[in-house]
Amino acid sequence: MTVDSFAAHGLHAGYDGREILHDLSLEIAPGRITAIVGANACGKSTLLRSLARLLAPTRGEVLLDGRAIHRLPTRALARRLGLLPQTPLAPEGITVADLVGRGRHPHHGPLSRWTREDDEAVAEALAATATADLAERAVDELSGGQRQRAWIAMALAQRTELLLLDEPTTYLDVAHQLEVLDLLTDLNRARGTTVVMVLHDLNLAARYADALVAMVAGRVHASGPPDRVLTEATVLEVFGLESRVIPDPTSGKPMMLPLGRHATLRAASPAL
C-alpha cells in the first residue's frame, strides 16, 4: 500500500488553551520528501504532532487517503504512519535491538508470533543506520548521536509508507547528518515512502527535500519546490534575516548564505 494523499485542512491546535496553529491547510506530496522549516516557536513541531495524531486539533482535520486519521484504529494507522518525535524516551535498560524490534509491534496481533520478516526488517534497519554493532548495548548508555540513530532504526523497522520525523539530525555531527538524510532519500526512492521532516538547517532542507513548507506564527507562509520557497525575500520574512541565495555548487538547489550585522558592515565598508 502507498499513500495517495495526505493533507491538513483548517487545522487549529495548541496546548493548555493557547492556540499555536491557526486555520492551517497543507497538501503533502505523496511519494516525495517534504521539509518543514521556520523560526523557533513558529509551530513546526506542533504541526508534525498534529499530522501524527499525537495532538488532537480543536478544529479542522488531517486526512490520509481521504479518511480522518483521528477516526482510524490505532494499530491500522501505525502500520501506515511512522513517527520519530523530537525527544523520544526509551524504557530504562532496553537494548538497541529490543528498541528497534518495537517498530514491528503494529504488524502483530494479540496472538501473532515473531516472523522471519520481522527479523529481516530489524536487521535491515540496523544495517541502514550503522547501529548493528550496538544491538546489544543499552540505549541509555549510548551517546546522543548513537541514540538518535537507534530511534531512526526503530522507525525504519516499522516499514510504513508514511514517515514523519521531528529534527532527525539532532545530536548528529555533520557526517552523520548527511548519512541520515541520504538514508531517507534512499528509502524514498526505493520504496516510494512519503517523508515529512522538520529541519532547522535550511540548506540541508533545500538539498534533500522535494518540497519546502515555510511556517510563520502557526501558519504556512510559503510552500513548494525549494527554488520557489528558499528566496532572499522568504528568508527575511520567515527568519528576519538578511541573506544571499545562490545555487548550491553540488546539488544545484538554492543555498542560503546568512548576512549577519558584521558581514553587512564589512561588505559596505571600503577596503583598508
From TrEMBL:
Top-rank lineage group of the source organism: Bacteria
Keyword Cell membrane: yes
SMART domains: AAA
Protein's cellular compartments: Cell membrane
GO annotation, biological process: iron ion transport
Pfam families linked: ABC_tran (PF00005)
Matches recorded under Gene3D superfamilies: P-loop containing nucleotide triphosphate hydrolases (3.40.50.300)
Coiled coil stretches, renumbered: none
Organism of origin: Albimonas pacifica
Domain ABC transporter: 1-242
GO cellular component, one term: plasma membrane
Protein name: Iron complex transport system ATP-binding protein
Keywords: ATP-binding, Cell membrane, Ion transport, Iron, Iron transport, Membrane, Nucleotide-binding, Transport
Molecular function GO terms recorded: ATP binding; ATP hydrolysis activity
Chief location of this protein within or outside the cell: membrane
Membrane topology reported for the UniProt record: Peripheral membrane protein
Entry's family note: Belongs to the ABC transporter superfamily.
Transmembrane recorded as keyword: no
